[in-house]
Amino acid sequence: MRIVVDANIPAADACFGELGELIRLPGREIDAAALRDADVVVVRSITRIDEAAVDAGMSGGSPLRFVGTCTIGTDHVDMRALARHGVGFASAPGCNAEAVVDYVLGSLLTLAERQGWQLAERRVGIVGVGNVGERLRRRLAAMDIECLACDPPRAEAEGTEAVVPRFVDLDTLIDECDVLCLHTPLVREGPHATHHLLDAQRIARIESGTVLLNAGRGDCVDGLALRQRLAGPGDISAVLDVWESEPAIDAALRDLANLATPHIAGHSLDGKLRGTHQVYAALSRHLGLPARVTLDSLLPAPPLPRLVLDGGLEPEDALRRCLRTVYDVRRDHDALYRESRRRGMAVGFDACRADYPLRRELSTLEVELRGGARELAPLLEGMGCRVG
What we know:
Domain D-isomer specific 2-hydroxyacid dehydrogenase NAD-binding: 113-265
EC number: 1.1.1.290
Largest sheet: 6 strands, parallel
CATH topology of the largest domain: Rossmann fold
CATH architecture of the largest domain: 3-Layer(aba) Sandwich
Binding site for NAD(+): 151, 184, 241, 266
Domain Erythronate-4-phosphate dehydrogenase dimerisation: 298-373
Subcellular location: Cytoplasm
Strand order of the largest sheet: 7-6-8-9-10-11
């Protein structure tokens, strides 16, 4: 069995090597020709598995049997084409959700530090309350931060039984929140389409002083309209991890964003290995084989497992220090500027992703609290830290 795997998927050898011949290719080189001789394909979001690719996979000497994506999102895979040919499919829902929430909180706390405000003083609007949005809501609740939620499909499904205290429509959320966090999938058509969900009209309505953070899909925001708003009044802030036309993103928009990163919000080692293992387990089930490799066997010990805090720290400062112990968003912001200017935008963007340094999640950090810092225990536990 020939298994084509994105070369940047970690632990591919450990998980898939025992199942067949492994062929590792850069994600952007996994095309119709590569699928023609593949029995199994395992990709990330940068690889487009469209109808032509699926048809090519079915036309080879050994028809395509299974496609897996080690990502939460699936909009890069034509699942209808897979279903039409009876090809198995699996994604990795929730695999990197904790890492994305680390990114969101780290970015907001960094921006608050730079601009001189407190996150606790803001009302946060979450657009898309799925694996990421729900986790973000819970962590913000641990900080006693008021949240509004906008998720029409979930609101329709749950009705009055919704666990989120308050669902509102998008325009209400824009009007009433100081921070807007987008965590939506890309849906191009239908009653809940998200392509350019924030269009020029909505971007123009955003109140002065608002922070817009997009860690969902780049096409959910009209990039040109956002660039014009940032270049004009310059009265809102933007944190952008996802972009239209990746990897050849708009350099002018990159320069105007307060924090600009190369689609790495979920790039923790934990999230990547979790995604690999979820697809491996699904493929094993598809083949009728036991999943012998465990996730625990893939995860190494964290390089900095313990932090000691004493008294004298304000809650947000303590949380900022804990987050930066495992992940500092400023590193990724600086890397995108450096590499895109040195190598060109598209090559530099992809290089940041391909050569991404080790990053762990906040849940791997144990925090010892001494003296007056012990009162921080509920906050840090609510953030996912292990408090000793």
